[in-house]
Amino acid sequence: GAGVSQSPSNKVTEKGKDVELRCDPISGHTALYWYRQSLGQGLEFLIYFQGNSAPDKSGLPSDRFSAERTGGSVSTLTIQRTQQEDSAVYLCASSFFSEAFFGQGTRLTVV
Amino acid sequence: AQSVTQPDIHITVSEGASLELRCNYSYGATPYLFWYVQSPGQGLQLLLKYFSGDTLVQGIKGFEAEFKRSQSSFNLRKPSVHWSDAAEYFCAVGDYMNYGGSQGNLIFGKGTKLSVKP
Predict the structure, then answer these.
(1) Cβ contact (<8 Å) for A48 and B34?
(2) Taking CB atoms and an 8 Å cutoff, what residues of chain A touch B47?
């Protein structure tokens, strides 16, 4: 596609349920990033994939969070046993040796 | 580890006035530096970037930024602000040293919200 696509755009889930957030990067982009944006907190780095290298998972806030990237393309961020503090906008970005292009994000609300 | 500090959480300027948004970084070498803008309800858009060379870089929408190694700063400027510039601005540093020269991980500051008075 022409840009980074994220789905769903909005997700409301009950506390304790698992959720999966999807990111389709720009074709050919080797780098893929996940960030979390909470009100007043800026962009919190979660995880970074670069080509076939081991991902940088240093930003994942707990073991309830995980992400994978299949075939160097689509990525899924999974949050298990969601908590209310997980409510935020989750942003995905991709790049190829230059600027990162961002998707519109998934707004997650845990009730 | 690299980090980015944007000291000003919220700035208000009058339309037509000049603007400077501050950004300080911590990194062990010459960094890759970026400014992004996020308008209300919109995604993040790159304003400008610095990789090497001329320390004064020009971006879109009339913005520019100057890399000052001695001050570990990359401040964003605009000579005359327009009402449409009201948005949140994020500075970011790319960690290329550990990623074979590619852009590497991108670490963002907490952002500066810009309000514009008519």
Answers:
(1) no
(2) none
**Residues B112 and B8: beta-carbon distance below 8 Å:** yes
Contacts of B43 in chain A (CB under 8 A): 91, 102-105
Query: Are B106 and A30 an interchain contact pair (Cβ–Cβ within 8 Å)?
Result: no
pLDDT tens digits, residue range A76-95? 999 999 999 999 999 999 98
Structure tokens given for A8: 């769903």
Pairwise CA distance, residues A66 & A89, whole Å: 16
A53 touches chain B (CB under 8 A): yes
Q: Return all residues near A68 (Cβ < 8 A) that are at least 6 apart.
A: A75, A76, A78
Four-CA torsion B112, B116, B117, B118, nearest 10 degrees: 180
What number of CA atoms fall less than 13 Å from residue B86's CA on the CB side?
Answer: 12
Q: Which residue of B has its CA nearest to A38?
A: B110
Q: What is the pLDDT of residues A23-69, one digit of tens each?
A: 999 998 989 999 999 987 789 999 999 888 889 899 999 999 999 99
> Nearest to residue A65, comparing CAs of A90, A43, A40, A42?
A90
How many contacts, defined by CB atoms under 8 Å, are there between A and B?
Answer: 53
For residue B45, the chain A residues in CB contact (below 8 A) are 102
Radius of gyration of chain A (CA): 13
Unique residue bearing structure tokens 């991709």 = A94
